[in-house]
Specification:
This protein is α/β, with parallel strands linked by helices. Helix content is about 30%, strand content about 25%. It has one domain: Alpha-Beta Barrel (TIM Barrel). It contains eight helices and 13 strands. Strands 1-2-3-4-5-7-6 form a seven-stranded mixed β-sheet. A two-stranded antiparallel ribbon has the order 8-9.
Amino acid sequence: MTRCSWSASRTPIMYPEINTFLRLLHTRRISSFLVTNAQFPEEIRTLVPVTQLYVSVDASTKDSLKKIDRPLFKDFWPRFLGSLKALGEKRQRTVYRLTLVKAWNVEEMLSYSELIAIGQPDFIEVKGVTYCGESSASTLTMANVPWHQEVVSFVQRLVDMLPQYEIACEHEHSNCLLIAHTKFKVEGEWWTWIDYDRFQELVEAHDEQNGGLQSFSALDYMAKTPRWAHFGAQEQGFDPAETRFQRRSNKAKNISGC
């Protein structure tokens, strides 16, 4: 299954022909993953179904969002909240993408939980910020990068405030965890993965005039999560069928699995 994932500085939703482009992808049976920076609520609302729609939630308060994202619009906060509300109206897979910046936004736990209540996403992807070197456009340093265990601790405390969510998956080598709505936990088993063929079938059967933009839901194309991807698994999200290379003391070490 071919997949198209793009953000274009997290604003691809600004493209006036975005829906035409998405339909073109789907007619070619290409799955779509779209990231937006939560500044275009109406465009989110009128977006045709995508395989997975992300909204970047880089901070949880107006002041911290201004500091971290340096938004272009004066009304960036109403736009931000409006985008989360619009996301909550979608029925296909929706994701909040939270980037943790140590000493900047990790202490805003209650505010994050309030933002999650607005959009009620299917999933919340929490990742430690990646330091890409010194830049005049950013004051980030390595001191702002949380350790994986710090990300785990943050997520555990956050989930305690979210009665409808649990930690589902872990990806230790990406410093990332996945929080999932419990509707994706069926008889004690997580179904957080995607059935791509089923999604294409649903899109092909989709009729905007008769069914509207929300004619099928995320639950209609979910797939079972493999055990190695579960939070707490020994593999910590690393596929045991693949080979992992780790560099220690300037010497590469070949490790199969974890």
